[in-house]
Write a structure and sequence with these properties.
eight-stranded mixed sheet, 15 helices, 2 domains, six-stranded mixed sheet, Protein-Tyrosine Phosphatase, Chain A, metal ion binding, 455 residues, UDP-N-acetylmuramoyl-L-alanine:D-glutamate ligase, 17% strand, 40% helix, alpha/beta, 17 strands
Length: 455
């Protein structure tokens, strides 16, 4: 049950500058203790902050693919239903405050800095107390810090409901320090295998942990793989929860990049007919969001408001044209499954492979790079290889060798690696000077760097 009244941080603290707040949020070495990272870290920080997350309802969205879009669609739908809605998502494309939205807009730099200031002081106070009692101090990760900060920002903004995207897994994710009233799991794929497990079943088990007794649960189309479905069903049975499973959708695909995709989806309370100018892979995410929002409200959605909410909902970094001339499109696909969805949308927009723009590709070393290349490389006649600024980036030379290996395996004499650049800026500058149209894909950080350079 939500607390009544206005939330106030229960202690005094230094207000950090925006620049200082970003520095702390970006650097894992700033707040390092002996224990962690642990979910208890965020729980104790929220307790220290007076549980700001109890001043509004929380909805949690987990999954490997589609969770960002589903989170955004859900927040947009609930806002269209008249609720003051917050959105928490990750990672940002360009600026850290993009992770937090209130009432459809990114929070201000000052609000972001204020939230980080309060969260950082809460972490300091918790660790000071633990050290005094002889307990190991917590390692506070950037995601821990930003999650606690977002809860402060949302509570002070007096939102009705916050839709929270899980950062990693589900069981130990920082967003799980809250007590959501409704959850959705969009789909499961092999991602972060060094942390979550090597099989779909192991990864599904980590994400299914967000299902708990008493919660509304929606399972997206991406959970239908038999081994994943067994894990989800077993978790629901153990929690005494009957999930709503998104299925039996009817989709009419667009005929071009500017055409609308239409679909119908059935929920527990209604059937919705929707048309929206979004990529062909988005209906399954929108359908999951529709079921989640309806389940939270406990009533059917207003059809006219739904149409406006979905059409106007921005999905940064997803089939996103960031410059019309020379044309640059970015997509944050970052594993084989999301890359397949992206390529299907590319095929719809430009059926002729030889007419497609240059592919600018980069990858992170802890991802399934070979699987990503298997999907992306065959679909483009020309490729430029680069590396993002992330400390997890695969160096451009190493990625190029993998691309060459993929082309040899495919026997693709008509695909050219036209250049290799050590940085995204150098690659984009060269392609812009040449007037080349570009599609950038392979990792979220690539989409973010390109968008940041052009917007």
């Amino acid at each position: 049950m939500k607390r009544e009244g206005a939330y106030v941080v229960p202690f005094g603290f230094e207000e950090l500058s925006y620049e200082r707040a970003v520095t702390i949020a970006a650097d894992t070495g700033k707040i390092v203790g002996e224990a962690g990272p642990l979910l208890e870290t965020v729980i104790d920080m929220l307790d220290e902050l007076g549980r700001p997350d109890e001043y509004f309802d929380c909805i949690q969205v987990a999954g490997t693919n589609g969770k960002t879009s589903t989170t955004r669609f859900t927040a947009a739908i609930l806002r269209g239903e008249g609720l003051r809605t917050a959105l928490y998502t990750s990672p940002q494309l360009v600026r850290y405050e993009e992770r937090m939205e209130v009432d459809g807009g990114v929070v201000s730099p000052s609000a972001f800095a204020h939230g980080v200031s309060a969260a950082a002081e809460a972490g300091r106070r918790v660790n000071e107390r633990r050290a005094a009692s002889g307990e190991p101090t917590y390692t506070i990760t950037p995601f821990d810090l930003l999650t606690a900060a977002a809860m402060v920002v949302f509570a002070e903004a007096r939102v009705d409901v916050a839709v929270l995207e899980v950062g990693l897994g589900g069981r130990w994710d920082a967003t799980s320090a809250t007590d959501p009233v409704a959850v959705a799991i969009t789909g499961i794929g092999l991602d972060h295998t060094h942390i979550l497990g090597d099989t779909l079943e192991e990864i599904a088990s980590e994400k299914a942990a967000v299902i708990k007794p008493g919660r509304t649960v929606v399972l997206g189309e991406g959970t239908h793989e038999p081994s994943v479905e067994r894990v989800m069903r077993a978790r629901c049975d153990a929690c005494g929860v009957v999930p709503w499973v998104v299925e039996h959708m009817v989709i009419e695909l667009p005929v071009g990049i500017d055409s609308a995709v239409s679909f119908s989806t059935e929920t527990a309370r209604s059937t919705y007919e929707v048309s929206m100018h979004k990529p062909a892979y988005q209906p399954q995410n929108a359908a999951c969001a529709i079921a989640l929002a309806e389940g939270y409200l406990g009533r059917p959605l207003d059809a006219s408001s739904l149409a406006v909410s979905l059409e106007s909902c921005p999905i940064p970094g997803r089939f996103d044209v960031v410059r019309p001339e020379p044309f640059v499109l970015v997509d944050a696909c970052h594993n084989p499954q999301s890359c397949e969805n992206f390529i299907n949308a590319v095929r719809e927009a430009e059926p002729e492979r030889e007419a497609r723009p240059v592919l600018l590709v980069a990858a992170l070393s802890d991802k399934d790079v070979r699987g990503i290349l298997d999907v992306l490389v065959p679909e483009f006649p020309r490729i430029v290889v680069s590396a993002t600024a992330s400390d997890r980036a695969l160096p451009a030379g190493e990625l190029a060798q993998l691309v060459y290996g993929e082309l040899d395996a495919l026997n693709r004499p008509h695909t050219d690696v036209i250049a290799i650049y050590p940085s995204v800026r150098e690659a984009l500058d060269a392609l812009t000077e040449a007037g080349e149209p570009v599609i950038a894909a392979g990792t979220i950080t690539l989409a973010g760097e390109v968008a940041g350079l052009l917007r």
